[in-house]
């Protein structure tokens, strides 16, 4: 007996242990990657911060209270399932607890998937289904991109599908109810399960109850969430505003102009996403597509609520969660029919007849999908390059250590999640803009705020996110001009590589931007005309950074960032980007021609690590905030315009 045959025989004899071991490996591996990402401040896309604060407040009796999206999470989603998990959360009321819980839930989905496949096919296929689930890149993307309630719904839906197949009505109904309690959009999948019951001519209660229950629950949950929304209606109807301003108008346009929906469904982006979702399953759901009806309402919701160019985000975030049960169920349905499947075409018949070749193609396809769409290769590469503690992490931890545990804080994207276990936390992107999400209401810095935790690269993020978007550009310009006034009254007590901590009414320990009455001694004097309103006068180098001197006509109209390129032995070895003058010179209260000193720190890039620094003043033309390989967000500048000549800084003057 060969090695593979022995492994297969053992796996069949000890199938339960194999599922447990595979799930445990997934849980430990993904928990490790989640914690590495968390402790290096990689969770910067708001969701984990928002939901952790909701868990924290709810655990203390302030149910659903939220200050990032105030005043309550109920205005975002209806998720009463939180009460089931609050006792567990109280054991460790911090964001990593939610990440581990989410990982455990996705790993545990292997069990209903195993039992479901074993019932519809056999034990060998069931074990393979577990492997394909745990190796699925979209499952891993869900796991690593922030935190969402939706994985809990996926777990309950898989169990509901299992008991649906077993004809156990009460168990099916119980898991349907649990799935509904996770979030209002889980009702779309339960509705799809009811439609599947109709198509399969199940007993009436197996389709009528899911249809009626999900429809009624969805309407009530949406109305309840809308009652708490500052918009006065369900918050996310905004995504469908191209169809109308109210549910009635949207429904009317769908009925009277159905081609509008069809254009969305059959757009290029929609087909690409659909193909991407099927790729890790080697397109097997297409052989028995009936169960895809579970995913159809969710896919319709996503396809019509997103511009087709942006649909790819579904593949890399939690948005694909509710699509996976239907896709996997369709793949499982196809398994018993493979033996008698007759593929069309001579080439397909040849490939189908070569079973070993077919296995190789299927394995390569699964691995290809894992590498191309999954987060693990990129995150493993990041760890291999930077280690378990990434370059800016020590400075960020040093800053956070200065903030008391319960102090009211306003924070940049990177700091929101680790600061979210507190009652009062504001997001500086909304403070900067002066508006809440979707512009439904004003958003001001809470008066009780005692600390501002700022990563100044966020000012560049705001330019990319808001300044280059016609819908937000006027608000962005207002925010840029008002930024100095919004931090007025806070003293800068920590500054390191663009990371700044301000404390209310504290004496400032750092003055990174100063208006001078006279020009001091400059070791590297220059006179470079950057713009009509800005002249570079020279630089003084320090062991930890540089002091740059300018003559500026204030307030400064241009919106610039400054890039420092570090060169060693003729090679570019590092790059640092900061907003010019930390955004301080757009204040309308400043006027006239002034001499300005701006200080920039280089952190660990000590003078012995570089020969020369070449600096450029730039203006971003095209760019945005995009997901990186480990499913955090980062600034991406795709096109920029140079402002003035290049500035060369020499370390000889230190």
Q: What is the general shape?
A: globular
What's the pLDDT, averaged over the residues? Answer: 92
User: What's the N-to-C terminus distance?
Assistant: 73 Å
Q: How many β strands by DSSP?
A: 14
Which range does the strand content fall in? Answer: 15-25%
Tell me the quaternary state: single chain
Number of helices: 26
Residue share in helix: 40-55%
Q: Tell me the structural class.
A: alpha+beta
- The total number of structural domains is 3
Explain the overall architecture.
- With 654 residues, the chain is α+β, with helices and mostly antiparallel strands.
- It has three domains: 103-228 and 266-381, no CATH class; 393-504, no CATH class; 513-653, Immunoglobulin-like (Sandwich).
- Helices cover 47% and strands 18% of the residues.
- The strands form three sheets. It has a five-stranded mixed sheet. A five-stranded antiparallel sheet has the order 6-12-9-8-7, with no helix packed on it.
- Strand 1 (409-411), helix 23 (413-416) and strand 2 form a beta-alpha-beta unit.
- Helix 9 (150-165) packs parallel to helix 11 (186-199) and helix 13 (247-256) packs across helix 14.
- The radius of gyration is 28 Å and the shape is globular.
């Amino acid at each position: 007996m060969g090695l593979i045959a022995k492994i297969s025989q053992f796996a069949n004899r000890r199938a339960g242990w194999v599922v447990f071991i595979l799930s445990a490996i997934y849980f430990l591996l993904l928990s490790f990657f989640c914690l590495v990402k968390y402790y290096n401040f990689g969770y910067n896309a708001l969701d984990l911060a928002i939901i952790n604060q909701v868990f924290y407040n709810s655990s203390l009796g302030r149910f659903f209270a939220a200050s990032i999206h105030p005043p309550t999470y109920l205005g975002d989603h209806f998720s009463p399932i939180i009460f089931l998990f609050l006792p567990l959360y109280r054991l460790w009321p911090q964001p990593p607890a939610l990440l581990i819980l989410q990982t455990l839930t996705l790993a545990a989905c292997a069990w209903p998937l195993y039992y479901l496949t074993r019932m519809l096919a056999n034990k060998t296929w069931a074990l393979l289904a577990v492997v394909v689930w745990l190796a699925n890149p979209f499952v891993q993307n869900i796991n690593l991109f922030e935190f969402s309630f939706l994985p809990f719904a996926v777990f309950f839906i898989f169990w509901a599908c299992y008991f649906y197949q077993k004809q156990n009505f009460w168990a099916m109904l119980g898991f349907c109810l649990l799935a509904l309690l996770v979030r209002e959009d889980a009702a779309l999948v339960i509705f799809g399960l009811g439609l599947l019951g109709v198509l399969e001519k199940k007993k009436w209660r197996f389709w009528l109850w899911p249809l009626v229950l999900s429809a009624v629950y969805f309407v009530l949950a949406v109305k309840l969430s809308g009652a708490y929304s500052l918009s006065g209606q369900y918050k996310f109807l905004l995504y469908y505003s191209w169809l109308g301003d109210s549910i009635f108008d949207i429904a009317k346009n769908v009925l009277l102009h159905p081609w509008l929906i069809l254009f969305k469904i059959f757009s290029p982006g929609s087909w690409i996403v659909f193909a991407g979702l099927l790729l890790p399953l080697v397109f097997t759901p297409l052989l028995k597509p009936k169960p895809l009806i579970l995913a159809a309402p969710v896919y319709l919701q996503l396809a019509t609520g997103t511009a087709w160019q942006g649909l790819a985000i579904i593949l890399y975030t939690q948005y694909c969660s509710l699509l996976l049960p239907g896709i996997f169920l369709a793949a499982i349905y196809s398994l018993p029919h493979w033996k008698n499947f007759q593929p069309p075409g001579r080439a397909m018949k040849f490939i189908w007849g070569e079973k070993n070749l077919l296995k190789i193609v299927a394995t390569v396809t699964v691995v290809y999908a894992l590498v191309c769409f999954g987060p693990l290769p990129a995150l493993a590469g990041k760890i291999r390059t930077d280690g378990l503690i990434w370059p800016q992490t020590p400075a960020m931890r040093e800053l956070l250590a200065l903030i008391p545990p319960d102090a009211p804080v306003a924070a940049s994207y990177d700091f929101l999640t680790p600061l979210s276990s507190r009652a009062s936390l504001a997001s500086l992107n909304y403070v900067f803009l002066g508006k809440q999400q979707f512009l439904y209401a004003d958003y001001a810095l809470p008066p009780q705020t005692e600390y501002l935790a700022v990563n100044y690269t966020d000012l560049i993020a705001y330019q990319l996110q808001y300044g280059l978007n016609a819908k937000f550009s006027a608000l962005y310009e207002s925010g840029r001009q008002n930024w100095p006034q919004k931090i007025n009254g806070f003293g800068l007590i920590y500054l390191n590589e663009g990371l700044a901590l301000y404390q209310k009414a504290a004496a400032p320990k750092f003055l990174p931007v100063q208006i001078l009455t006279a020009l001091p001694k400059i070791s590297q004097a220059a006179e470079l005309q950057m713009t009509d309103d800005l002249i570079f006068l020279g630089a003084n180098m320090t062991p930890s950074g540089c002091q740059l001197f300018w003559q500026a006509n204030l307030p400064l109209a241009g919106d610039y960032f400054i890039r420092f390129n570090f060169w060693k032995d003729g090679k570019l070895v590092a790059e640092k980007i900061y907003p010019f003058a930390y955004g301080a010179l757009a204040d309308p209260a400043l006027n006239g021609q002034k001499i300005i000193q701006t200080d920039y720190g280089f952190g660990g890039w000590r003078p012995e690590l570089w020969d020369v620094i070449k600096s450029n003043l730039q203006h971003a033309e095209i760019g945005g905030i995009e997901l990186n390989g480990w499913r955090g967000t980062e600034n991406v500048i795709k096109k920029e315009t140079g402002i003035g000549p290049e500035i060369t800084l020499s370390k000889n003057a230190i």
